[in-house]
Specification:
The structure is a single chain. This protein is of the alpha/beta class. It has 2 domains: 201 residues, Vaccinia Virus protein VP39 (Rossmann fold, 3-Layer(aba) Sandwich), CATH 3.40.50.150; 82 residues, Helicase, Ruva Protein, domain 3. Helices cover 36% and strands 16% of the residues. The protein has 11 helices and 9 strands. The strands form 2 sheets. It has a 7-stranded mixed sheet with strand order 4-3-2-5-6-9-7. Strands 1-8 form a two-stranded antiparallel sheet. The radius of gyration is 22 Å and the shape is elongated.
């Protein structure tokens, strides 16, 4: 591995393929960014070491893979591009005990249960489904840290760090499980070929204390329903149930309406007076938890 570097790896792969825009192939070249990505977990006390098992999504030429391997960690990498899979087998020949490259779509296959870290430069087009998959995996198989390279604007929605307008269902869902840490902004020139937008490193740190949530699916349905029309008042938004609420066992329009009548009259603790006249942007994070837990736990009178 000593004779390899990110630019060489990228050049070797690009000699064989033209990057596929549909796969979001923008290969990271910047050695400083690569180093930051692999070392970020150390900021929260979960360094990548020989004891780690790192999952990488879309390794491409192996720029990030190389740095992770240098840490002595085991790596499982899912790569959908067959030519990239063969490239990785060539450049990392002899490291089969440390590196497993699987020709598969990371969204459709099982992930190793003993994964400790996820570090990836993910295609922008699948950022949301990748995060859903990460959360689903973490619930059953707790992770130590997740580091991703994502579109800069997307990172703001993940972290909800640009004021009320950055709050939304994506950030609220992540808030249930993770503390979000933003890292360096990454300019287009750090990639080959360069994307048209800035990127950013972002780290997900699993929360130490569990958020008390009655029903995760209901939480997502309600937040998505309300933020789909974020300029309307909450009174208007909750007057109708989310479109897919009937997919939640035991829920239907009449039960929703009963729950709404009760929440209007009871004013549960944790919701500010006048919340019905607010817009989704005006609600604070804890109020979304109270609101969704109230609906989730409501039982109609028999």
């Amino acid at each position: 591995m000593e004779d390899l570097d990110p630019r060489m790896l990228v050049d070797l792969l690009r000699d064989r393929i033209n990057p596929d825009k549909s796969l979001g192939q923008h290969f990271i070249l910047d050695e400083n960014i690569i180093s930051d990505a692999v070392n970020m977990p150390g900021r929260i006390g979960h360094d990548v070491t020989e004891e780690s098992h790192v999952l990488e999504i879309g390794p491409g030429p192996g720029s990030l893979t190389l740095e992770i391997l240098k840490k002595g960690a085991r790596v499982t990498a899912f790569e959908i591009d067959e030519e990239a899979v063969m490239h990785l087998a060539r450049v990392f020949k002899g490291l089969e005990d440390q590196l497993s490259v699987i020709h598969a779509d990371a969204l459709t296959v099982d992930w190793p249960e003993d994964t400790t870290h996820i570090i990836a430069n993910i295609p922008y087009s699948i950022s949301s489904p990748v995060l859903d998959r990460i959360q689903d995996h973490h619930i059953s198989n707790p992770l130590k840290a997740v580091v991703l390279l994502v579109q800069d604007e997307f990172s703001e929605r993940m972290a909800m760090n640009r004021g009320p307008r950055s709050m939304g269902p994506l950030g609220l869902s992540l808030w249930l499980d993770f503390e979000i840490h933003t890292g360096k902004k990454v300019p287009p020139g750090s990639f080959s070929p360069p994307p048209r937008v800035n990127s950013r490193l972002i780290m997900l740190e699993p929360k130490e204390s569990e958020i008390i949530l009655e029903h995760r699916k209901m939480f997502k349905l309600i937040s998505q329903h309300c933020f789909a029309n974020r300029r309307r008042k909450m009174s208007t938004l909750v007057s109708k149930p989310p479109k897919r609420v009937s997919r939640v066992r035991g829920w239907h329009k009449s039960r929703w309406n009963d729950a709404l009548s009760h929440i209007k009259s009871e004013s549960p603790e944790g919701l500010r007076d006048g919340w019905l006249n607010m817009r989704p942007d005006d609600m604070i994070i804890s109020e979304w938890l109270v609101l969704c837990n109230y609906f989730s736990s409501f039982e109609p009178e028999k």
